[in-house]
Each structure stands twice: as C-alpha cells, then as structure tokens.
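Why do we care about 3D structure at all? Because function follows from shape, and shape follows, mostly, from sequence. That is the central idea of this module. The next example makes it concrete: a single protein chain, its amino acid sequence, and then its structure expressed as tokens.
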Amino acid sequence: MDKGYGRRFSHLYVLLQVRVGFWQVSNLMRSVIISMLLGISLSGCATVSMVASEAIVETNLSADESSLRKVSSAYTDLAERKNWIEENKGLLGFARVLMNGTSDDAANGQATYLDQVQAQSEAPLVQAKLIRADIESAAHGLDVATMEVEKLFSVERPAKALRADLVSYESALVTAKKARRTFISALTDLDMADANPTTYALAELDVSIDAAGDAADTLADYAANRKRAEAAS
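And the structure:
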C-alpha cells in the first residue's frame, strides 16, 4: 500500500458517491465496498479525521465550487488525456484500486503511455526528455492544487464545502501517485544512462506528492475543526 493511502480511505469512500452516485450502487455492492474499507488496516496512519458515516456528504455544491475543486478536476482530466493514468473505469475499477493499489489493466495504460512516447521519437534520449517533461508537468499541476488548498485557510467556508474540497484534492493526489507509477514503468524500458535526466524530475515529483499529503491532512483537520465550531454555535 502506498504511503498515505490508509489515512485517506474514509475520504475516498466519498469519492465513490461523487463519481458514481450513491443511489446507483446496489445494496450488495455497497456492502462489499463498506466491508472492504473497514477491513483495511489503518495502523500507523497519522490522521483519519472522519469516520465513514461522518464523511458522507453532499457534493453538489456547484454554486459554491472552489478553485481547488476546479484545479483538481482539471489535473485528473489532463492526466487521463496524456495517458499518465488510465481513464476512470467507474465503480468496479475504483474498487480494484482500493484493493490492489492499481486496476487489472493498469499495465495496458502504462504501455499506452510508452507507445505514445515512442511514437514521437525512436531515440531513447529524446524519449527520456519527453518523459521528464511530463513528470515536471505532473509535479507543477499538483503544486498548483496545493497552493489552492493554502488559500482555503484564509477564507470562511462551511465544513460541508471543505470536505468536498478535500475529496477533490485527494483525488488529484491519487492521480499524481498513479502517474508516478506510469512514468517509472516507462523508464524501465530505457537504459540507465538515457533515463538519468529524469532522476531530478522524479525527486521533485516526490516532494510535491509529500507536500500534498501534508496539505491534505491539514485540510482534513481544518474541516473537522470547522464542523465542531459549527456544531457549537
């Protein structure tokens, strides 16, 4: 399991409702997903700000949609268009990610990305440069989303909106982690000498992912504190 996955499963459960619509999930499948979430160990995780029942929120807040949600959604859309990640396969595909960390046909998505790179040039050094550019783009896009998170701490937003913001941001974070796996898979087909230019870019992406994980934890705490404040008022 990737670092930081465990502490976010309660929020990822909300994402099932955002992407699919809870009313479309059969009672049997809903039971399977809930059992799967509860069966995953959360030991060693720094923060689980809300239990699953508290994390079930309405996300149709179009009138109050934040820049963070728009940026996060655009980030995942970009990753899908550029084949950094496979296109969203719906509920069953998402359940496979929860269980295995990747879906059954993730390898096909990675091969598609590599094919795309190889189609642009047959020279391994040029291919490495193309991959490096994508890695840098992925890091930059996630950094932009993280900056949008920081803006939320200086404005007044209801807890429900903040939780929806958090779900969207964590979706972008998952996208970045999946994209990183795609990049590394593509680089394994290159000689080390040709892949060396990507080393620094990968390190920067790792920094961006770690910073995003910290920002997500802070936003989760902020949303929880806002909820308590609203309850006390």
